[in-house]
Design goal:
Elements: H1 10-22, E1 28-31, H2 37-44, E2 49-53, H3 59-66, H4 71-81, E3 86-92, H5 100-110, E4 117-124, H6 130-135
Parallel strand pairs: 1-2, 2-3, 3-4
GO molecular function: 4 iron, 4 sulfur cluster binding; catalytic activity; metal ion binding
Protein name: Radical SAM core domain-containing protein
Cofactor: [4Fe-4S] cluster
């Protein structure tokens, strides 16, 4: 399950995942993890693999980027990693999340997640979401950030 933030429709997502599991379909979900643990825990019952996006380890910068702090997200990552295999994804936003300090802090964080932590995936920044922001009447705060070159 992916697209938007799946946990915002946690009851619907749980129902779909439950049906998939009843049909022996492998299930995975991508999330930012900004959701009450009680809701996440219900979803995890039907998940085989969880992708967590961690935008930034510094809560202040995370809030600048996303509008929310990261404490709830990091707690959910810790709890979920005790239940299901996890892949951490880091969008590399030039000038924000691509610093050595942030990447080292993320590596230190995931080093303590245990055996269910599988790997980190680095996602190059892109501007595909600008149109969605415009359609929603929202301001795209990163409009001046350039995607990385092909190199």
């Amino acid at each position: 399950v992916s697209g938007g933030e799946s946990t915002m429709q946690h009851e619907f997502v749980t129902a779909i995942l439950k049906k998939c599991k009843s049909m022996y379909v492998h299930t995975a979900m991508e999330t930012c993890g900004y959701v009450k643990w009680e809701e996440m825990e219900k979803i995890l019952e039907y998940i085989d693999l969880l992708y967590f996006d961690i935008k930034h380890m510094d809560s202040r910068i995370h809030k600048e980027l996303t509008g929310v702090p990261n404490e709830l997200i990091l707690e959910n990552v810790k709890k979920a990693s005790k239940m299901r295999p996890i892949i951490i994804r880091i969008p590399l936003i030039p000038g924000y999340s691509d610093s050595e300090e942030n990447l080292v802090n993320t590596a230190k964080f995931v080093a303590n997640l245990g055996d269910n932590f599988l790997r980190i995936e680095l996602l190059p920044y892109h501007r595909f979401g600008i149109g969605t922001y415009e359609q929603l009447g929202r301001i795209y705060e990163l409009k001046d950030v350039e995607p990385p070159s092909e190199e």
